[in-house]
Structure formats: structure tokens, C-alpha cells
Amino acid sequence: MTDAEYLWEPVGGCWSVRRRADGPGRGAAQLIGAGEWGRDGAPDSPWPPPLTTIAWRLDHLSETLMGRASHLGGDRTFTRAADVSPADAAGAIARIRRTAADWRRSLLQIAESDDDRTGLSSYPYGSDAEETFPSIVWWMNQEILHHGAEIALLRDLYVHRAR
After folding, report:
1. Which of 43, 109, 114, 150 holds its CA 20 to 30 A away from the CA of 11?
2. Domain boundaries, the chain
3. Residue 54's beta-bridge partner residues?
4. How far is CA 61 from CA 5, 20, 21, 144, in A?
5. Which secondary structure element, helix H or strand E, spans residue 157, and what is its range?
6. Neighbour count for residue 99 (Cβ, 10 Å)
């Protein structure tokens, strides 16, 4: 994947990953995270939701995988405010691979006896404190499938866009 494809905005007003110096995109209230680049976001989810770039989707998935891995079986120190978004496709691909592996390791550390325990995860950006372990896994699977399919569609559209 090229950086152009990673950041491609198929329509105006897409949410993406942007240089902090440029500020948030249209409809976004903030750039989430730390570092030179951040992901468009808002305190409340807008309706209808904005179309998002591959960069936004990969960053969202990686951040969620990393955060949940940290708060399920890790050191429980992850915060969105300290998360750093990759500026390029290669960095984002390496990050999604790493965070997926971290998530898998966290899942494998959970004892079967904890399967139906509520509050096993302390991830602060979801309903984990009120959810059982299978519910958290179901949600992450849904997120990966949902955003993964969207990424695949955007990749197809990018290849076949009007030139």
C-alpha cells in the first residue's frame, strides 16, 4: 500500500490521520493521540458518521487492539492521549500486525475459569467493565471484521478510481 492510498480521501470531509499542525478535518473536534500526527475525532459520534480513510480505520483498529491488550492482560497503562499515530502506510501496517499479535497474546493468557467473569478488562474507552470476556472478544472481532471489510472496499475503490 502506498502512502497516497493510505491517506486517500474518496469524498470531501473524510476523517483521517493528519498532521497536528494542520488541525482536525471537517466535522472533527480534535486530533486524538500524541505526536506529530493524530486521528480525527469528536467527543460525541456525529450522525451520520463521516466516511473515514484507510489511515483512520487502521489507526482506530490498532489503538483499540493495543488498548484492550494493555487493559486485559498487560500492564493497564495504555491511554489514547499518549498513543502515537503512524504518518505512513508502512508504519500503520507494522503497527496493526504488532497490536494484533499483542491482542492475541492477551487472549491466550486468560484462564477458562475467567470466561464469564464481568470486568476482566479495564479498558477505559468501552463498556469492558460491565462486559464478560466473551462479549469483549465478540466486540473486537466485530470491529476487526467491520473495519477490515471497509479497508478492503476502499482499496478496491482506490485501484479503480477515475484517473
Report:
1. 43
2. 3-160
3. none
4. 17, 20, 24, 7
5. helix 133-160
6. 21
As a whole-number percent, the residues of the chain with pLDDT over 90 amount to 88
For the chain, give the mean pLDDT.
Answer: 94
The answer to whether the bond into 48 is cis (omega within 30° of 0) is yes
In the chain, DSSP assigns E strands to 17-19, 30-32, 37-41
In the sheet that holds 17-19, the strands lie side by side as 17-19, 37-41, 30-32
Q: What is the CATH number of domain 3-160?
A: 1.20.120
pLDDT digits (tens, 9 = 90+) for 64-123: 999 999 999 889 999 999 999 999 999 999 999 999 999 999 999 999 898 888 989 999
pLDDT band at 44 (very low <50, low <70, confident <90, very high): confident
* DSSP-derived 3-state class of residue 53: coil
DSSP structural state of residue 49: P
d(CA 138, CA 93): 23
* Three-point CA angle 145, 155, 11, nearest 5°: 100
3-state secondary structure of 13: coil
pTM confidence score: 0.94
Which residues are registered as beta bridge partners of 40?
31
Q: For residue 135, what are the contacts with CB-CB under 8 A and spacing of at least 6? A: none
